[in-house]
Specification:
- There is one protein chain.
- It is built from 5 helices and 4 strands.
Length: 139
């Protein structure tokens, strides 16, 4: 468990949380609308990395980075506004296929570029090292 941090690596959840926190912080239900939060996760993220000429939007000359999302789950129906659906309703487990720089890295929810079991084993090994360095139990 990460105290004071977020370790679930779920961009869809982060969009939802960012939008809701902005609304609560400003006490304004119109703060950080769905389109703006999706832009934060895409083109604005690319700008933060100074890579907006290469990634962050689907345009001629940019790297072919895209995500295909399944829309046959209850949380995807009905869809009135694609930005609202992306920001508030769809989740990371709705992602079916991921293409990075034109290369399919995940298809049918299966990662093709790494051996997940090996990565998980390595992560568990790192946990022991990190826990020991912090004086925490490693179990």
């Amino acid at each position: 468990m990460g105290l004071g941090s977020n370790n679930d690596l779920n961009l869809m959840e982060e969009m939802d949380l960012a939008a809701k926190l902005a609304k609560i912080t400003k006490m304004d239900p119109l703060a950080l609308n769905a389109k703006a939060v999706v832009e934060m996760a895409t083109i604005d993220g690319a700008k933060a990395l100074h890579m907006e000429k290469e990634i962050g939007s689907l345009e001629a000359g940019k790297k072919a980075d895209l995500v295909l999302i399944g829309l046959d789950e209850p949380n995807a129906v009905p869809m009135y506004d694609v930005y609202a659906q992306l920001a508030y309703a769809l989740k990371g487990n709705d992602v079916e296929t991921v293409v990075i720089a034109g290369r399919v890295v995940m298809r049918d929810r299966k990662v093709l570029t790494v051996k997940e079991e090996e990565v998980m084993t390595k992560a568990r090994e790192y946990k022991k090292t990190v826990a020991a360095s912090l004086g925490l139990p490693s179990n």
